[in-house]
Amino acid sequence: MTASTPTTPHIAGDPAWLTPRQRELVALAAELGRTRFAPRAAEHDREASFPTENYRDLRDSGLLALCVPSERGGLGADFTAFMLVAAEIGRHCGATALSFNMHVCATLWVGPVAEALGMSAAERADQEAHRAVHYDRVVRHGKVYSQPFSEGGAASAGKAPWGTLAKKVEGGYLVTGRKLFATLAGVADYYGVLCTLDTPGASQADALYLAIPADSAGVTVSGDWDPLGMRATVSRNLEMKDVFVRDNARLLPEGRYFEASQRCPHMFATLAAPYMGIAQAAYDFTVQYLRAELPGMPPVPRRMYPTKQQAVAQMRIMLEQARALFLQTARDARPDPDADTRMRLLAGHYTIMESANAVCTLAIRTCGGASMLKSLPLERLYRDSRCGSLMLPWTAELCLDQLGRDCLYDPGEGDEAIEQV
Questions:
Q1: Exposure pattern of 115-140 as b/e (b: 16+ CB <10 Å)?
Q2: What are the tens digits of pLDDT across the range 355-405?
Q3: Strand residues in 97-171 grouped as ranges (E)
């Protein structure tokens, strides 16, 4: 007798609480993921090649403009819909979800994040003109933005000014610097580069966020890309030498990025969405494997063994714990969250990143040796999941450091002297 296939859990758990529009967008991502992205994932992982055809599908479906307002020609998705769409894509191809996340974030920084800032009338008019340029590139021309922030030092963790410098010149800026692990390097049309205004005594408050055209003179991509996981992001090095960009390259008003980053911390938790999808995919695979429902595999079920049942139960518990915090993070997103919300955000981000790998690890142990074959997706899910806790600016270590301090200190408090015994 052949058992019926259980319904695969929705990425939101119970989709009934979603709006019709949110359900529609997640369904679109699920269809693309299942029919297009998943069948291509193994090849791009093996070759460490960028899934260009996936981006063609994202463009054709309108998802490149997911968070561009509908009155500007986009899909008008809110933050929750964005997080769920990115997680659903991650369920089918983690690398595509991660690079997609970085593209969509550019439209969030230039849009709702900028709106949260108190601006003068001149700044607001300037931002509106620039925003129109960036939205038009995405909506009408299907251009892809990247978000290469990392420089390998304290700046990447938000603890120092960016080493990449932007010198003010007539009509724009000259940018010089180097970014590491630049996702979409050599593929994106515009690099959303964080840099520091080149002035004496510049601090983090002098940060600039500029969209640099990939074909600008002085822009080069270098280095090999042969990592453990997330291989299809092709995150090579991005180097800039006296690259001229016009004033309208600004994604945020001059000197306002640091304020925006402090007031809108949920922007950094968007990186968790692909890993939520990876955790879900590992659970899905394990259930199918133990029920002998994987295409092309012998019909030998293994679900009757108590050890397998207990392992799947543990996986489901970890998955639902991560999902609960993931959904709460999406719902909590707003400018100027209070201290408790910020701590919950750090706890959620850490939990999702670490749970993704824990679920994948348990899936491999439970499914056994066959699960390690590259003809099956689990070993790729495991490798991709391990990368999550290493991603700046909120690595697992930095989340614990900040959360521990925030739990024990109020703003402005210092350390007590340690009593000598």
A1: eebebeeebeebbeebbeebbebbbe
A2: 999 999 999 999 998 788 888 999 999 999 999 999 989 999 999 999 999
A3: 145-146, 165-169
Angstrom distance (rounded) from CA 356 to CA 279: 4
Establish whether the linkage from the previous residue to 39 is cis, with ω within 30° of 0: no
Name the nearest CA neighbour of 150 among 236, 265, 245. Answer: 236
CA distance 80 to 125: 28
Number of helical H runs and strand E runs in the chain: 13, 7
Q: Which residues of the chain have pLDDT under 50?
A: 1-5, 421
Tracing tokens 């008019």 back to the chain, one arrives at 125
CA atoms 265, 271, 274, 278: torsion sign: negative
Distance CA 382, CA 367 (A): 13
* CA 99/CA 110 separation, integer angstroms: 18
Query: At how many degrees (to 10) do helices 306-332 and 272-290 cross?
Result: 160
183: which DSSP letter? T
Residue 239 tokens, joined: 């180097």
| pLDDT the model gives residue 299 | 82
Helix, strand, coil shares of the chain as percentages rounded to 5?
55, 10, 30
The number of C-alpha atoms within 13 Å of 106 and in the hemisphere containing its C-beta is 36
User: 3-state DSSP call for residue 350?
Assistant: helix
Determine whether 298 is exposed, middle or buried from the number of CB atoms within 10 Å of its CB (0-12, 13-18, 19+).
Answer: exposed
User: What's the whole-model pTM score?
Assistant: 0.94
Strands (E), 88-201: 145-146, 165-169, 172-182, 190-197
Cα-based distances in Å from 98 to 15, 193, 194, 274, 396: 23, 17, 19, 6, 17
Q: What is the CA radius of gyration of the chain?
A: 22
- Give just the sign of the alpha carbon dihedral 38, 214, 83, 386: positive
Predicted pLDDT at 159: 82
- Cα–Cα distances in Å, from 170 out to 26, 52, 167, 244, 245? 45, 37, 10, 10, 10
* Dihedrals phi, psi of 210, to nearest 5 degrees: -120, 140
CA distances from 344 to 70, 113, 397, 398 (A): 31, 20, 16, 14
Provide φ and ψ at 11, rounded to 5°: -65, -25
Q: Is the dihedral of CA 402, 404, 409, 415 positive or negative?
A: negative
Q: Hey, how many other C-beta atoms are within 10 angstroms of the C-beta on 266? A: 22
